Amino acid sequence: MSVSEHPVALTIERRVGGATALLATVMALPLLDGLFVALLLAGTLETTVGMLETGLLVFGGSATVAVIVAELDEGRRPMVRSVLLIGAVLIPVATVEAVIAPTIESALELAIFQRFAGVVILVIAARTVSAKVADYLPSSGSIILLGLLASVRPAALTVEIVFDSSLMARAAITAAIGVGFALAVAIAAPALRGVVDLDRFRFGSAVALGVFALPIVGVFDTDAPIALAVLAVSALFAYSPDGSDDASERASESATDTDYTPEDSSRAPWL
Q: For residue 51, what are the CA distances in angstroms to 6, 162, 266?
């Protein structure tokens, strides 16, 4: 099987332990660190392409694939059940955050805050590439906090619960896209093991995240699904039928990159 030392998943695994808990934390992280609210405020979910990119790259992404394929060693049905249980929590929480977002929006200069949201995604992309790089980068939550401080307008704050049905629906659908992606990976996991190079997919996903962030930062303005195209190409290049033959070699090289030695050698090599 192709293995992957995913830096983001490694960091989380050290704290939570357990494959199912790890998957739940990886998928819920955008809701926990404020990234999803930031994307809501940045207007990323206003288009279908934005919803797809957020669902696949933020809630799904390479960390989700790595955990399901390389670490979850349950049968197909238990894996599907785990993903559905995670989705049963993830989707309602995303909807609740869509209720809170308009109140936060009233107190922010969105043009400034939007750029910080883009920077967060770029940082996540960099952390996905290498654990060494991650050591020198601030956390997503701290960047979002700085963005709030830089763009806050206290006088304009309007404390009012706004049930924007359109925004709530987009938030729920976006989270559901991520859950659907994880569900598809869980169903296909037995077939994917041994033919998917997780390291290639990880690097490709990092590039897709970077491309996804550029319009948010304001580098260029386009509605073209470039990030989705990059993700699709990454998936194609990650297909490696002979991956099991040189898995040990790739694992050794990746371990050198992350500077992390597993405490329990009986676990999957990428952890």
A: 25, 21, 39
